[in-house]
Amino acid sequence: MKQDIILAGVGGQGILSIAFVIDNAALKEGLIFKQVEVHGMAQRGGAVQSHLRLSRDQIHSDLIPKGAADMILSVEPLESLRYFDYLSPEGIVVTSRSPFVNIPDYPDIEKVLSQIQNVKNKVIVDSMRLAQEAGSTRAQNMVMLGAASNHLILNKDNLMEYIRVLFRPRGEKLVEMNLKAFELGRAAAADGSSPLDRS
Amino acid sequence: MKDEILLGDEAVALGAIHAGLSGAYSYPGTPASEIMEFLIRKSEGGKNFIASWSVNEKVAYEEALGVSFAGKRAMVSMKHVGLNVAADPFINSAITGANGGLVVVVADDPGMHSSQNEQDSRFYAQFAQIFCFEPSNHQEAYDMIRESFDISEELGVPVMVRLVTRLSHSRSRVQPRPPRKQNTLHYGIGKEWTLLPVNARRQFKLLLEKQKELVELSDRSGFNSLDLSRKNTALGVIASGIAYNYVLENYEDEAERPSILKLSTYPVPETLISELVQHVDSVLVVEEGYPFIEKNLRGILGFKEKTVLGKLDGHLPMTGELSPEIVRQALAMESRDKLYLNDFKIAARPPQLCAGCPHADSYKALNKALESYSQSNVFSDIGCYTLGALPPYNAIHSCVCMGASIGMAKGGAEAGIFPSVAVIGDSTFAHSGITPLLSAAEAQTNMTVIILDNSIVAMTGGQPTFASGEGLIKIVEGLGVKTDHIRIIEPLPKNLEKNVRIFKEEFDYKGLSVIVASRECIQEVRKKKRRESR
């Protein structure tokens, strides 16, 4: 059993918080994992990604080979496309449909979404609306983690446990909001006939 | 002991703590910063051991050297280019030798994720003639540190541990070992540590005599492994560090693997290499960084009747970092099926200054002030403000190494550039800007130095600075800059016109001016607010 995930987004969107929750849940479930992240200059307001590999058996490379990722989990639609060549043709894209526009040449959002639609397996979620519903646009990362949770090889309760661990130092209100964001994302992704083809 | 989730950098740090570390020193630099951040968190304010940021890497190295002189275990960590700054004490510490274990951890940045070059620190280890480890995973990073201290104390030489970005910034599980005690104080012997020629000649000879032992140590090391395939004698692979993982990643069936030498120690294990080469017809060398092992292997005469494949013959790229698919190609395997975006062009999203960043306001004022001059040049330095090279600012024309802005502005001014402007951050100024400013003050060069004082080391994640606010101004005064031409501005949109005027006044002054643009890093302001609101 293994799962290779590319986490994607824009610096500041909380990619590493998603990674923290998955890493710790994986450790609890006795899985081996490796997770590469981006620090330093490459991080400031730019495209950020993390390679996250989970497995029962030994993992060799820290980086996921191109064409081998089981999932692209992105908090931003354009960013989900940036790493398309990492996805296995059988893999799934779980992405937000809410653009983060901080560049002058951001493409037409409909064109971005139609590219994602071309993939066989995808879950596209309105993370902005759901995060607002949960209480803050900053919770889009947890919305997306929730949306991906149906397809992760990890137990939902363990994910939620580490959302609590992550946000507890910032107060109970933030814990509750992020758990709600997670649940809303999970429900939005699961809602409908085919969980693999929702938009 | 319980397993821990650690970055490669943190595995190094924990390894050092458990190996009985007494003193650790560093200067922030990606991808090495997290080593010291972890140590500082675990030192509990110096109660357990000393863990401290230094003003630059040279000072950090010398502080570690002092700990080693005192018989205690010392570690100094830095990014690859930091070792250029520390090269003087580094090379000479191989001559003095170590008393307490001395380990230098250097994080290389192949692919230049956050650096100005991709120099390979293994050449430094070879240059200094010391032992060097290169871990391939987190557990090795943790374990190698203890062994580094042991070798350093046993042979009386410093030991290097070479990391690369993808290990430094990868997170995985580490199984710790029981910690051991620190050394007690026992002074170094004066004549070994006083490098007068009479002593240095003797010490250097001692170092040379140890070389054979270092190679034997390398051949014996449990971190190296040679797996000879009975089935496949056509190809053998030598792979070091994380490149070894990329090779294994491409063989799902272990039985299909070629003969592989996993190489983790330097000087290179000569016997192991010979055994592999004798077993196969051609050897592929896969290593992150420069073709270091490959050059050792080829030499001038090389292995007769054997083919060596690697970076030098273009089999693997000379630049950039390796990846599983690059190595796959070198192994002559077909690439995996993957998805393609037909004609859709993905807009780049480069790093940029944060919204509300004080540097943005400084650059806006600087650009506007320079509009009045037909020609000008802005020599910049290393920090967040280097992003001023990108649109929409396009404000700077150079970035070379820590502190270079001031020296280059002086040289540029003396060659005829006007206005000749240097832009440098507060921490970079403390690191390497003080001595060139002293030089410029002595010469009263017609140039303007802008110190962007955001009171933090921002680019690497908010480490403390050594020169900010009042203290910074006092240093500038003390260096001999005329008080009338030390100006302080607050880079804010509302001050734009005023700041433009001050810039122009100082450009027009025929002599040395220093303008300090003082406003706290916006990320730090936010962090403080968050802390207060809790």
Explain the overall architecture.
The complex is a heterodimer of chains A (199) and B (534). Chain A has 199 residues and is of the alpha/beta class. The longest helix of chain A has 19 residues, at 172-190. Chain A has a 7-stranded mixed beta sheet with strand order 2-3-1-4-5-6-7. The relative contact order of chain A is 0.17. Chain A is 39% helix and 23% strand. Chain A has helices at 15-28, 77-82, 109-117, 127-134, 140-149, 156-167, 172-190, and strands at residues 2-10, 32-36, 47-55, 69-74, 87-96, 121-125, 197-198. Chain B has 3 domains: 4-209, 3-Layer(aba) Sandwich (Rossmann fold), CATH 3.40.50; 225-330, Rossmann fold; 358-526, Thiamin diphosphate (ThDP)-binding fold, Pyr/PP domains (Rossmann fold, 3-Layer(aba) Sandwich), CATH 3.40.50. In chain B, 40% of the residues lie in helices and 17% in strands. Chain B contains 21 helices and 19 strands. In chain B, the strands form 4 sheets. A 7-stranded mixed beta sheet of chain B has the order 3-2-4-5-7-6-12, with helices on both faces. In chain B, strand 6, helix 7 (138-155) and strand 7 form a beta-alpha-beta unit. In chain B, helix 12 (241-249) packs across helix 15. The model of chain B has no long low-confidence stretch (mean pLDDT 96). Chains A and B meet through helix 1, strand 2, helix 2 and strand 5 of A and strand 8, helix 12 and helix 15 of B. Strand 2 of chain A pairs antiparallel with strand 8 of chain B.
